[in-house]
Amino acid sequence: MTITVTNQKPAVLDPVHTITCTGTYDPMPAITSAIADPLRTPLNPATPANITDARGHDLSGGIEQALLACLSDTLVPGAEDFMKELLGQTMVNYDQTTPLPVGELFAAQAGRKHKLPAPVPGKVVYTAREDVIPSAKGLLSGSTDADLFFASLAYAYHPDTLGFWFQSEAAFDDFKAWLAQQLQTIGAALPAGTIKLLGDFAALELKSLTESLLLRQDDTDNNEELSFARLVVHLLMQYVEQQNVQQAQPGGTPATSGVLPFTVGELFCPKSLVFVNVEAHARARPGKVTAEWGIINKSLASPVKVVSNKNLSKLTAMHRATARAQAQAATQQAGAPATRSAQVVFRKQAPTKLYLFAALTRVLKRMGKVNRSQNIFRKSKTTFLKANRRDPDDYNKPGRITSVSYMPDIHIYVDTSGSITEANYQEAVLMLIKIAKKLNVNLYFNSFSNVLSQETLLKVENKSVTQIWQEFRKVPKVDGGTDYKQIWDYINASAVRKRRLSLVITDFEWRVPSTRADHPKNLYYAPCGAMDWDSMVRSAKHFAKAMNHIDPTVPQRLLGMIV
Questions:
Q1: Which one of 40, 48, 65, 550 has the largest count of C-beta atoms within 10 Å of its C-beta?
Q2: pTM of the entire structure?
């Protein structure tokens, strides 16, 4: 879509908002005030700003709905493209080519302001040592602003939460003292449950790197009038706004707290809060910072979250208990390859088995050898260092040495969702059998839909294609929808599975989540057989584009689909 913007004052979005804690909970007015209205502000107040499409249709009234379309559970590429083009033309600091999803627009704004390249897995990597700790030191000394610290945290860890930074433990205590004063005014109107939770909040300490709380199970939870979840965010925003006003005055004192709007959805309806101690980050070891935010992200991704209306629920409690029983996470090292991905061109016809075999072989060679696997590679050579087996006394006849090495195991995940017919499944399995026979390797196998079947080791050595097919038919086939995320989680849960070459055989009919996830390093995708190729390519293109915020290298992982 071509968007034309005229008479619009380029905007700098401010994440500070005030959603009332009384009456019905409705974040839409705050979204309009903080994001949509600044994009519609005219440069010349005498005439309105114009935002139109190629046909001259007015688009300014639909900004809120277009933004909400980008905040759904699954990523919608069309909505993302529209909003990125709009933001690129209406904001002072926004690059519409950013790989960051629209939900992270405040992070993209902060990074662009400081001319930081957008994070790209495997290419542009942000770390505690090189980025977070130096920016924390700069914020403390006054040599840099809070936006650089926020961008460093967001680019390094991408937490799906709402954060607030405090200069030090003392600054957090100052906020709690201010909070106590405010509660003296409104205390009589507060429900007993909210008063109890506020009392527990007053006992919180921010001595270490972070402290974090759970507020809601979902967007509809704890939204009652004067609930703790609504009141604490309302007062935090009010406190930050007062500090910003004081700082803006001539001779004003620098702010000692601020908002960390990691994602737009959490900014206006947060399910969790993370309080960040800047001074502790400035003094911490890189490994400790990396481990801390790793625990936060694991806690955010955990499907089990218990929010109590009687006691404060700490976000990281379960994972901290687990971490105490394990070794400290290793320090993440900086470094990024200098190579650039080639332009992606999809094949005009389905790949042959020979083509897929060659592609799979190239990937295995790149992965290198492992200590032990089902994928055994034997190599024999003649040598005079060993006696000839048939004539050991004749030193003029060489012997033979056989060396054994191991290539990574191959693990296949075959899509058996409702869109895959029996013919598609059979075609995919027979292709795998022939490739396995050619490689002479055993295969680990799962079928999957929105559930994952039990893992099975299928042995191919000294068996015919028919015998192997009969073994495949014994493996239970699951049915239902499609979910790749469960495969990612299944692989990432095991160090052994991470070392395997994993291959998903699928029709690519899956909607990518809008939130970030850990995509396995050695996971690849291949097209299912006996299907319309043009339709397959369209789905694969949609999948690859939607995966840009999770793993931009996915187009190079589509075996047999790109030239």
A1: 550
A2: 0.79
